[in-house]
């Protein structure tokens, strides 16, 4: 009987030791898990910050609050730590169940108050850890979903901006091409007008040359008519000179009479 009671006491102490060890591990994991959620939120805010453009070779500014892990690493670590904490919580639940079975299987009529208090304390710790784990996991999951949604919206906005920019560039290129075509058409019209004018001037020059040649031919063919025309021109010129002299003398006389 003493050996059985001793074995039962050793079993209880072993269960308590396992419970405390699991609780310490879970506590450390939950602290790291909470920090991971903070880093994930900081990474999301850090991604939205603009880069420094002080120089051509400038690099993104870093600070003490900048996360050391990128998004992919954070998500992988989140999944790994969540699985590890879930496994530790499952083990702690199993240990607590065994502690409950121990209190139900002891040979005494009823377990002591200290034993029940210890059991309740471990159960409360398990409940608090489970609640904290679920809360932190839900918060990080919500941030991930929100980040995925915002990332999808940003990608859609960037795609729309890129397509709008391409459409504007295409419209500008089309307008510029149309202006060039109109300019080429106007230049072609001006060249056509210049060529037509040149051809008309050449034809008129040829026509005048032919008339001049005909007149010279007639003058050479009828020298008497040519000499008669020259005499008529000389007489007309002489009459014009005489008429001009008479008119000039008359004006001078009139002016002298007027002043005297």
UniProtKB/TrEMBL annotation:
<dbReference type="GO" id="GO:0000139">
    <property type="term" value="C:Golgi membrane"/>
</dbReference>
<comment type="similarity">
    <text>Belongs to the GOSR1 family.</text>
</comment>
<keyword id="KW-0813">Transport</keyword>
<dbReference type="GO" id="GO:0015031">
    <property type="term" value="P:protein transport"/>
</dbReference>
<keyword id="KW-0472">Membrane</keyword>
<protein>
    <recommendedName>
        <fullName>Golgi SNAP receptor complex member 1</fullName>
    </recommendedName>
</protein>
<dbReference type="GO" id="GO:0031201">
    <property type="term" value="C:SNARE complex"/>
</dbReference>
<dbReference type="GO" id="GO:0005797">
    <property type="term" value="C:Golgi medial cisterna"/>
</dbReference>
<feature type="compositionally biased region" description="Polar residues">
    <location>
        <begin position="50"/>
        <end position="65"/>
    </location>
</feature>
<feature type="transmembrane region" description="Helical">
    <location>
        <begin position="241"/>
        <end position="259"/>
    </location>
</feature>
<dbReference type="GO" id="GO:0006888">
    <property type="term" value="P:endoplasmic reticulum to Golgi vesicle-mediated transport"/>
</dbReference>
<dbReference type="GO" id="GO:0005801">
    <property type="term" value="C:cis-Golgi network"/>
</dbReference>
<keyword id="KW-0175">Coiled coil</keyword>
<feature type="coiled-coil region">
    <location>
        <begin position="85"/>
        <end position="146"/>
    </location>
</feature>
<keyword id="KW-0653">Protein transport</keyword>
<dbReference type="InterPro" id="IPR023601">
    <property type="entry name" value="Golgi_SNAP_su1"/>
</dbReference>
<keyword id="KW-1133">Transmembrane helix</keyword>
<keyword id="KW-0812">Transmembrane</keyword>
<dbReference type="GO" id="GO:0006906">
    <property type="term" value="P:vesicle fusion"/>
</dbReference>
<dbReference type="GO" id="GO:0048219">
    <property type="term" value="P:inter-Golgi cisterna vesicle-mediated transport"/>
</dbReference>
<dbReference type="Pfam" id="PF12352">
    <property type="entry name" value="V-SNARE_C"/>
</dbReference>
<keyword id="KW-0333">Golgi apparatus</keyword>
<dbReference type="GO" id="GO:0005484">
    <property type="term" value="F:SNAP receptor activity"/>
</dbReference>
<feature type="region of interest" description="Disordered">
    <location>
        <begin position="46"/>
        <end position="67"/>
    </location>
</feature>
């Amino acid at each position: 009987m003493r050996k059985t009671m001793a074995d039962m006491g050793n079993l209880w102490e072993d269960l308590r030791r396992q419970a405390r060890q699991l609780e310490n591990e879970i506590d450390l994991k939950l602290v790291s898990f909470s920090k991971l959620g903070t880093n994930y939120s900081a990474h999301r805010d850090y991604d939205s910050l603009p880069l420094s453009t002080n120089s051509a070779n400038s690099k993104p500014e870093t600070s003490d609050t900048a996360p050391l892990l990128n998004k992919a690493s954070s998500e992988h670590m989140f999944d790994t730590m969540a699985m590890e904490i879930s496994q530790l919580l499952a083990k702690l639940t199993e240990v607590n169940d065994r502690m409950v079975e121990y209190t139900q299987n002891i040979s005494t009529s009823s377990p002591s108050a200290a034993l029940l208090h210890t059991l309740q304390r471990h159960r409360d710790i398990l409940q608090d850890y489970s609640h904290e784990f679920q809360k932190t996991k839900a918060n990080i999951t919500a941030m991930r979903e929100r980040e995925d949604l915002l990332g999808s919206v940003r990608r859609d906005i960037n795609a729309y901006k890129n397509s709008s920019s391409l459409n504007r560039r295409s419209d500008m290129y089309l307008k510029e091409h149309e202006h060039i075509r109109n300019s080429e058409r106007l230049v072609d019209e001006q060249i056509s007008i210049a060529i037509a004018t040149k051809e008309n001037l050449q034809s008129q020059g040829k026509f005048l040359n032919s008339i001049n040649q005909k007149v010279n031919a007639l003058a050479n063919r009828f020298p008497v008519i040519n000499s008669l025309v020259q005499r008529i021109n000389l007489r007309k010129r002489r009459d014009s000179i005489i008429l001009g002299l008479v008119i000039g003398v008359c004006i001078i006389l009139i002016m002298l009479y007027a002043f005297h």
